[in-house]
Amino acid sequence: MAPDSGPDILSGWAVQHPGPVASGPLTPVRRPPPEPGPDDLLLRVEACGVCRTDLHLAEGDLPPHRPSTVPGHEIVGRVTATGAAVTRFRAGDRVGGAWLRGTCGICRYCRAGHENLCPASVYTGWDADGGFAEAAVVLADYAYPLPDTEDATLLAPLLCAGIIGYRALRRSALPAGGRLGIYGFGASAHLAAQVALAEGATVHVLTRSAQARELALELGSSSAGDAYDRPPEPLDSAILFAPVGDLVPVALEALDRSGTLAVAGIHLTDIPPLTYQRHLFYERNLCSVTSNTREDGREFLATAARIGIQVTVSRYPLSRAPEALADLAADRVHGAAVLTPG
């Protein structure tokens, strides 16, 4: 299907020279509308979340996979054109484009249901341009149908923060009615906490942000303390969302016997030495979280709708994308940061 009529030149932001936020790694760009391939959807972006992964890419913690990439992988948009092979969507549909952009589908990981580990996997806003722009292209098979009735800015954080938080919660092996510790309380954590609470867990939040501690208590957490505090009771499971390796031994020490710590970030500062007897004995488990599968996405979006998840957002116009990244770096964002074009 041919694209709807629209501007010949579209605005956005690209990472030209990765470095500290203060150095201005985001550069404004104006480009022709992207062309969808046979399996693609061309989207008019309604909203795009600002994820900590975008910050890692801008600052160079994640080496760029291509020059001058437009970041952003929590994309809510309207389909304006479809590739010739696309049958799932049509013009006017609202869809979500997420971090996992594509996989090979044939490797042993894909065939075993672990497509998040596919060696040939590619990612939105890293291997291809993302949603810090007025338009974006996503693969139809990796897009999610989204409801027309919801505010686009409230849907955007679900597409990475929500999905990754959901996978991290499952990786933490939280037992029914268990005690969960959450270290760091930003976009992903405030959504994962609500899923855990809806499933009957007791949640303890540990974070350096006083504002985030207030939000944690408002959402129903049993306690909220500083990141390095000891929770009021031993934990069955914990999730580390803060990209701070120093917190790994802190969280491990807070676990009860046979507890599991899941590290949710794509980037983490160095972990200090661990002592076997102090941190790992009594069958404590330490595991990582790598991307997500599409099944994770489908399960989480259905869960979010079922429990009526509350999404707390800080809105920024697309023109203020550098400010949104700077606020994220300084922990000034309340909930999730979301960009809105136009």
Strand content: 25-35%
- Give a count of the beta strands, DSSP E runs of length 2 or more: 17
- Looking at the overall shape, the CATH architecture of the largest domain is Alpha-Beta Complex
Domain tally = 2
The biggest beta sheet, please?
Answer: 7 strands, mixed
- Per the CATH scheme, the topology name of the largest domain is Quinone Oxidoreductase, Chain A, domain 1
What is the assigned CATH homologous superfamily of the largest domain?
Medium-chain alcohol dehydrogenases, catalytic domain
Q: How many helical stretches?
A: 10
Question: Average pLDDT across residues?
Answer: 96
Distance between the amino and carboxyl termini: 25 Å
Structural class, from secondary structure content? alpha/beta
What is the N-to-C succession of helices and strands? EEEHEEEHEEEHHEHEHEEHEHEHEHE
Radius of gyration: 20 Å
Low-confidence stretches: 1-5
CATH C-level class of the largest domain is: Alpha Beta
Overall geometric form = globular
Helix content: 10-25%
Region (Disordered): 1-37
GO cellular component, one term: cytoplasm
InterPro entries: ADH-like_N, ADH_Zn_CS, ADH_Zn_typ-2, ER, GroES-like_sf, NAD(P)-bd_dom_sf
EC number: 1.1.1.1
